[in-house]
Amino acid sequence: MQLYPATQSEKVGFNLLDKRSMDPIGYKQINKNTGKEVTRDNIVRGFEYEKGKYVVMTDAEIRAANPEQTQTVDILAFVDAPDISFLSLDTPYYLAPDRKGEKVYALLRDALKDTGKVGIASVVLHNKQHLAALIPVGPALALNTLRWGDEVRDFSEFKFPDEDTKKAGVTPKELDMAKRLIDDMSDSWDPAKYHDTFRDDILAMVEKKVKQGKVAEVMKVDEGGEEKASADILDLSELLKRSLKKGGTTTKRGAASSSSATDDDSDGEETARPARKTATRRKRA
Fold first, then answer.
1. Strands 2-5 and 140-146
2. Which CA distances in Å does 175 have to 92, 179, 237, 257?
3. Which residue ranges in the chain fall short of pLDDT 70?
4. Does residue 169 sit in the same domain as residue 141?
5. Where is the domain boundary, 121, 148, 175?
6. 166 lies in which domain range?
7. Could you tell me if 1 and 90 lie in one domain?
8. d(Cα 76, Cα 133) in Å, to the nearest integer?
């Protein structure tokens, strides 16, 4: 089978330029001890077996270390798809059948679909062995590399609220309110609804400067006003209060409509009307 990356980068890329001549500034391989540039033909791969001591290995030697695994996707087992944690997923690829391999390809794809299973496989990519999940996706088989078990940090390294709702201080009423909010904001997954707005803004600015003939000018930008956050951090409790009416349910997508909260005179508890999500903001690092 042939392996192809299933993702493509749409990130905004910038080249480093010499502002005096607008010439690109290239990337240099620098010797960390001498500070001098090293030519490509003098660069080799080394495995550090002791601090500061290396064994030099060529690409051919690395491939020869396990030639069978570099050429194949070896299926080790089949497991239920929900058993694989999102934390283990790494990089997706598409698997395409070799010539005369279409029937076997279709057989495996359809069998995985019908059983709800995914294949667990071993594969070597870029001179590194990976664990991978073989997943049917529409007409294709996808191979998603997985992180090894010791690469996913254990929960015990962090302080999380207790999984027991009561010990975490969550009341049944609050939990019910959160479930209703989730229900009101539930939607079908459509990745086309979401896109990189930062990239759009940068491309619009580039287009504007090109049209104005100011491609080589560094323009002064007013940086005053409110600082934009690198991410919006959802204040769930405030969103719950503002999004759900006491004693009733909101309309679909009601959590996104604008209104303000009022006080309930009967029992002193706050009754909320649907409102836009509120978020605390964090400075961009």
1. unpaired
2. 35, 6, 11, 22
3. 6-14, 66-71, 127, 218-219, 221-285
4. no
5. 148
6. 161-186+231-285
7. yes
8. 10
